[in-house]
Structures are given as structure tokens and as C-alpha cells.
Amino acid sequence: IAATQPSTNWHLKExxxxxxxxxxxxxxxxxxxxxxxxxxxxGIEQPEQNLTFIAETGPKPSKLTKTQATFGISSTVSKxxxxxxxxxxxxxxxxxxxxxxxxxxxxxxxxxxQSTSSGSSSPATxxxxxxxxxxxxxxxxxxxxxxxxxxxxxxxxxxxxxxxxKNHISSFGWNFGQxxxxxxxxxLSMLDRSLNYRQDPATDxxxxxxxxxxxxxxxxxxxxxxxxxxxxxxxxxxxxGGKSPSSWTGSxxxxxxxxxxxxxxxxxxQCWVFAAVLTTVLRCLGIPTRTITNFSSAHDxxxxxxxxxxxxxxxxxxxxxxxxxxNFHVWNESWFSRSDLGPxxxxxxxxxxxxxxxxxxxxxxxxxSRNAIKEGDVHLDYDCPFVFAEVNxxxxxxxxxxxxxxxxxxxxxxxxxxxxxxxxxxGRDDRVExxxxxxxxxxxxxEREIFKKARKKLGLEDKFDPTAxxxxxxxxxxxxxxxxxxxxxxxxxxxxxLILVLENLQSDAKTVNVNMTxxxxxxxxxxxxxxxxxxxxxxxxxxxxxxxxxxxxxxxxQQQLTTDNTIQVTxxxxxxxxxxxxxxxxxxxxxxxxxxxxxxxxxxxxxxxxEVIFTNPIDTEVTNCVLQVEGNDLLRGILEIDVPPxxxxxxxxxxxxxxxxxxxxxHLLVNFSCDKFANVKAFKIVxxxx
Length: 690
Hints:
14 helices, globular, 39% strand, Coagulation Factor XIII, Chain A, domain 2, single chain, Immunoglobulin-like, alpha+beta, 38 strands, nine-stranded mixed sheet
């Protein structure tokens, strides 16, 4: 067409503003599908009606796989295909508006132009651009009609993740950072490193128009299992050779470390890390996504909608059988329609990147329609039975004798799993419960009906299950009841004070032998180290309750504690002439507080001082103190500051400078660690002005 290479003006600023991509810091055009963008170029000598454009993506672009489009200049925008409309023209410069269909394949495209009149001339390359999903466009599968939700679930780079346990919900900030530095390129390379792409690159690329495909592939790529994905999971309680999962404060460092190491899995992650990284990647690509925390979350390994836990006669929780009940579990919800299932199943879809069970032969999970979970339609794609069990499974607690291999049911419950299902509010840093979107009210008739329906769909109703308890076992009633009450602060560094309350439910006296244990655990309730044990023998008068105080001094549990600060306390009550009664409680201890102060006004490109204050709450010195700080638009990368050791009850003040480079409300995240306290986290909102 032209003797010289045409020079292209991508109108980066205007296009980014119109396409909600201004937050990306790229020199490349980034736009969303189903919407027009402007491009101008000069050095083309042909009349514009003779021009043909070629947009192509993937390793083997072809019209058949919708990874290549050729289109001329037309007078109107086409809804079904790529089109170009002339905007203006001068002696040798042409400005056109290019539109892609709302179901175009996403990814990096090459744009070329060719003259139709001169026949065989080869096309001239105008350059490359990246095309993303478009939640602002009504024709897109990811269309989200509520603009405030688009802002939160696509454009917001800060999140709050909920943790702890059902009795004691805690939270921490997270920097998703989906628009920072090289994150978009890393997200695109995740797609190109997936097993599907390696097996058949052209077919994989052609499916990238479908959010359910992209979501499922990325749920596999975020974990390292099967495909050398981003994060390696570790639930052992010991994290040598990597970073402890609770030490991360954002996804950026993880994704960048993955790329820098030549795509070797980053060590280590646990559920919230997998979920947070998946949130970053999906928001980056334009799929509205949020993190969800489910408290008392079932991991039903054998697909029978029942979780079995085993305890020995001393009250030790046995690491036996593949089922477990986690204090909490974090997964994702992404918003898109389900062309495969129909409009009743559109909306929020569950994706889970934590490697728990294989699906289709690899560790991936979802998308499972949240509506399908609520209605018990567990036969629908993908992985609905597993997600249904996470929020609905029945629990059976067994006493197990390793010598005889005999197990006896102690009790069963159907309302304990799936509580306080939580996510961050739209536009505010508050917690919102979405439990009612996953299931009908626990204990209601409707909820039991749905549970039966799910069992039926899975073929569990008519199948004899030799591992299930008999009706007689389920119906037996205990003679006593018990519970642990908290009788003091739940803080690392303070003694743990509890009261075991036992009540005789019968009208004759009962003799009870109680074996008590306390173990440090990880948040999945996997026992790690024994902290304490004791046994008592008591007589309970008829219909009376007795209280037994328990105290575990800080020095006794300090060495044993994991970075999750979780302790499981158990009392196994052997009632003479009656069935055994299990009393247990999961305790999550809070870290001491840390305080962040911004000293003065935060202004763009001006230094501002920040002070972080931490008081050592215990009566021994703490050493190896490190403060780590991050925050988009406030500082680049992560700041690490060594803090001098702190004597008993001493307060440290650490000061550092920030030079903010964007206006608006920004989040500063800090994480303080020392030899006695792991990952004390806090965040501060900084209002940056001009």
C-alpha cells in the first residue's frame, strides 16, 4: 500500500476513558469488546473505500475459529462482526472507528490494513492492541447492569478478605493490583501456559470468547498442581523454602515472582491466596469477580454430602479419612450468563482455585452456578456437588479405636456447615452476608427438601452406604450436654481461659470421665502440635450443670502455635452407661493491634510521612521484627523495613516517607512480623489530593 510503514495514532487517552481502561499503565491500546475505539494512521495513499482491515489473535488466526476478522469500511456498526466506520480523512491521514462483536475472543490482537485495489500487495501492520471482556456492554456475557458493582468488581484494586471462624470473624486487606505494571501480560501468559493451550493452541484460543471457559482454565492455572501454575499450596504448618501463606499482602508480588522465576510456582499459598490471585486475574481481563468466605466449610472428598470426623478415646482429633471441616474457606464468584444452562442459572458463578479435588482429571473447580447450588440442581456443570457440600454437608462425629478399628457415632448434625458466608460490600469496607443466596434457611423444611433433592440427583438416596450410621445410631440421645465458654481475651500473648460447662439432662446422677486436649491447628482444623491435655472425673447431680475452669498459659502454647493462631480444644466425655459426648471448640486468637498514622496531608508528588506504631504486649523481648508496606499509587513495589527488637511492653514507632502519584482514596497495607507474632496486619485509607 505504502512505501513507508504507516504511523498509527491509537488515541490512548480517549479510548481508555471510553473503555474503562484508564487505570492500566500501558503504552499499548487496551479496549473492551462490543464497543467502538478510534484509530488514525497516515502514509496510506489509497482511497479509504479500498481499504481492508485484518484483526487477528492467537497462534493460528483463522476465520473459522473466530480468531481472525477481515472487514472493510462500512457506513454502520455491525453487532455480529468486526466493522470499521470512517470518522474523518485528510490528504493522507485516515481516522476510523473500529468495533468488535460483544462475543469476540479476548487477548492480544494484531491490526493490519491492506488495499483491495492493488490486488496482491501485502498488508501493512498498524500495531497491536489488547481486547478484554466488557461488563459495561449489554451484549456481553459478563454484562453487569449495576454500574457501582462494575466499579467494585472490575475496577477496584483493594479488597477485604474475611477469615477467623464462625464465632469470631476477622478480616484483612488485600491489594489485588490488577492494573499495575506487567500484570495484564502475566494474565495473558497464564492462558498461554495452560494445559488446554499446550494440547491444542488454536482451539484453546478460539474458546477465549467464553467467560466460563476462561474462568475454568484460570481456576486450574492459579494453583501449581498439574500445570506448573502460579501458587504452590502448603497446609503443613511449616513453610521452609518459601513465604508463609499469611505473609502476603497482595497478588502483584506473587504474579511477578512467578514470571521472574521463569514461571516456577510461588511458595506458598492457602485458600485466600488462590482466591485473591484469581480475583486479580479475572478483574484484569474484565470478568466481574469477588472473594467469598464460607465459615465451617466442608471438604467432602467422597461425594456423599457427608463429612466424617474421627476422635480417639483421649479426645484427640484424628487426621484420618479425607473429609474435613475448615474453619473457613475462601473461593470466588464471577458474574456471567450461562448459555449452556439458560437464564435461570445466570449471575454469580462459583470458581475455586484452591486444589482440593480433581475435576475432569485436574485440580480446577467451577464455574458452578450459585442459583443451581441454592436449588439443589447438582447435576449441572461444573462441580456443583462439591460446592453444594461445602455449604450443606451433614457432619458425623465418630469415636474411633485404632486397635479394634471400630467406630461409634457420637453425634451428627445437619445445620453446622456453611455459616456467615461473607464478602466485602460494594463501595464500602464492610462485611455483607450472602448465606441466603447459597441456601434456604437452615432447619427449614425447604432446606431439607433441597438437600434430599440433591442426594437424589447424585443417586445417594437409593444406594446402600455401608459407612453411614444406622438410624438407631442417629436417633440415640445423650445423657449430658456440654460446651466450652470463653472466659477471657482471645489474644496471642495472653493466657487462654475457658470454662467447660457440662449439664446432666437426666433425672438421675451421672458419672462422667472427661479427657481433654488442646492442639494447635492450621485453619483447615488439621491438628499440628499438642499443646495441653488433662482428664477429670465428675459426678453430675440430676438436671444440674457444673462448670470447670481451664487455663492454658501463654508460655505453654506460644511455641506450638501456627501462623494461623488457631487452637482446637476438645473434651471427650465417657458417660457411664450412656453414649460418649464430644465437646469441642475452635479458637482463633487475635494478633495485637498495630496503628498507622499519616502525618500531614497526602498530596500528589509531595513527600508525606507515615508512622506505624506497635506495642509489644508480652513480658519478653521480641526480635527479628520486620515491617512490610504496600499500596497502589502510594509507593512502587513493596517497602521492607527492619525494626529494632522490642523489650517487654515497649512501643516502637517506625517512620517512612511516601510520594503518592495519583489522587483519590488509596489504601496503604502494612504487615508486621517478629519471632513471637506472625503477620500483624492493618490498612489505612489515605486521601491523596492535588
